[in-house]
Amino acid sequence: MIKVEDLSKIYTERAKEVRALDNVNVEMNEGEIISILGPSGSGKSTFLNCLSGIDRPTHGKIFIDDYEITNKSDNEVTEFRAKNMGFIFQFFNLIPVLNVIENVKLPMLINEQKEKLAEEKAKELLIKVGLEDKMNVDVSTLSGGEAQRVSIARALINEPKIVWADEPTGALDKKTGNEILELIKNLNETKGTSFIIVTHDPKVTKFSNSIYLMESGKLRKQ
Ligand SMILES: Nc1ncnc2c1ncn2[C@@H]1O[C@H](COP(=O)(O)OP(=O)(O)OP(=O)(O)O)[C@@H](O)[C@H]1O
Predict the structure, then answer these.
(1) Cα 71 from Cα 74, distance rounded (Å)
(2) Span from the CA of 7 to the centroid of ligand 1 (angstroms)
(3) Residue 40 belongs to domain spanning
(4) How many angstroms is it from 198 CA to the middle of ligand 1?
(5) Is the CB of 99 under 6 A from ligand 1?
């Protein structure tokens, strides 16, 4: 489903080169939970940003289901991302002026879907993540675990094939973090969505089908 060929990313800062990704070659299966572990500064976020088309690699090719993103224009990649990918962040990145259900509906409205359909879909997902009682509340009143459930519902609303999660348990206590990972596992099993989780947290591996280790820009399967 994801194929990466000879991928490198070199940042140049004050005439010094940083090789954030160093000739990565990998194929990742569809429908799995994949975790990418590695120390701080090893290149995990750079890898996620390149594969999701947010950043451009210096060298190499990336295919998502045979669609090469590395030879497309910025607009084409943005459209592909909006239709095929969801995102979960460490600090949730919810929009504070929108309530819970409005946050969940937003990516579907951005994709020019009908309001009524977005409303139905958002309700269904909020029930699935256990937030049926919180649909109309202000997001600032949510606990960390609840906020992450909202962001998971938001990530899934366009029925993406892939959800990228950057430290999804990083801001949560151990128990809440485990509940979020259980929810991700459940959604992976019931909907077949692939989750690719970038993390420092070794307990994520317990929920993963495949584990990779990033070290100094090189990726190894465990
Ligand atoms: N925009 C940038 N400009 C210059 N160097 C960068 C830039 N972004 C990242 N780097 C460097 O590239 C390397 C990889 O960074 P990256 O953020 O991908 O690591 P990471 O594994 O995600 O780290 P963390 O776990 O701390 O988030 C680091 O040496 C970092 O300093």
Answers:
(1) 10
(2) 15
(3) 2-221
(4) 13
(5) no
In the numeric block, the tokens 């995102």 are attached to 87
Residue 99's domain is classified under what CATH number?
3.40.50.300
Residues 6 or more apart whose CB falls under 8 angstroms from that of 119 comprise 101, 105
Specify the number of domains making up the chain.
1
pTM of the entire predicted model: 0.92
Tens of pLDDT, residue by residue over 55-85, are 999 999 999 998 999 999 999 999 999 999 9
The closest of 4, 26, 23, 12 to 216, measured between CA atoms, is 23
Between the alpha carbon of residue 148 and those of residues 17, 51, 63, the distances in Å are: 36, 22, 29
Cβ(45) to ligand 1 under 6 A? Answer: yes
Give the ipTM of the model, two decimals please.
0.96
